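Readers outside the structure-tokenisation community will struggle with the description of the input data as it stands. Showing the layout once, in full, would remove most of the difficulty. For illustration, here is how one protein appears when written out as sequence plus structure tokens:
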Amino acid sequence: MQRIILAAIVILVLGSAGSALYGAAAPPTRIASSGLSAELLPLWIGQDRGLFKKHGMDTEVITIQGGPLAIQALLSGSTQFHAGGTSSPMESKIGGANAVTLAVFIDSLPYTLVSSAKIKTPAQLKGAKFAVSRLGSVSDLSLRIALRNMGINPEKEATILGIGDQTSRFTALRSGIVDATVISPPLTVTARKLGLTTISSFQDAGIVWAYNSIDTTQDFAQNNRGVVLSFLRGFVESIAYIHKNKEESMATMGRWMRLDDREALAESYEYVLKIVPKKPYASDKGIQAVLDALALRNPAAKNFKPQDFYDMSYLKELDKSGFLDRVFQ
């Protein structure tokens, strides 16, 4: 079951679903996902190809535009899991919430910074307007890191606007509302065809960064260990499915992203294979990179260490049982 929820009403809608919607039957386990980008393919595979169901779960994926809103839904109890930007649950933890990361399925920055054709070099980006999803989001934080690496002060020498998902950001770039934005496949294919300038590939730069994760609350994990293990089984088996089933994986991606450009789908598929690990453990280096970025805006982040944000015991249990290796055989 797939739902795309308008950000302004997501908490109200989910919070009031309850028994009126499901009657006496138990509601499905809800997973809030942040946006519609290729990195979320394992989640979509698990849902559409029945791999969560295989492990005894009735699940519903709810797409919410923006990580902070998705985390609000998680913390309210409206959803039970979150799949998306790791910075959002970390920021909530710094603020006193009890979010916990169960797996990190992208530990790098998969964005490409593209600009209008008139801009040819990083130096020409000084004073430019940039589009991100939301201020404080992963796209915002990673853009600011990239600009600093180029010698541009994002606070003083750039105007950064919260525009929405990457399709909205790309539209803003094409229409001239902004001069540059961060995107990922399949829009990288479209950008090349349109003659836009590729300024920098964050992923190729080898930056370690806890980008996308599976998260829940500590209370839910402690009280529902079996559900957490089942969900992680379905998710990891979905990663294995992607490796073994190219055409089916591309078809699922195309359906969720409403995309029928085979070149774009093929590039996105190869990109997912490249950036999603078979064993999605969190790394201290990746978590620390996010912490360092958050500390630029929130000094309280300096009071935390990487181990405060994740619990890999569930993934380790599956690994010790041989499950993580077995599904790839």
The chain has two domains: 2-109+208-326, 117-201.
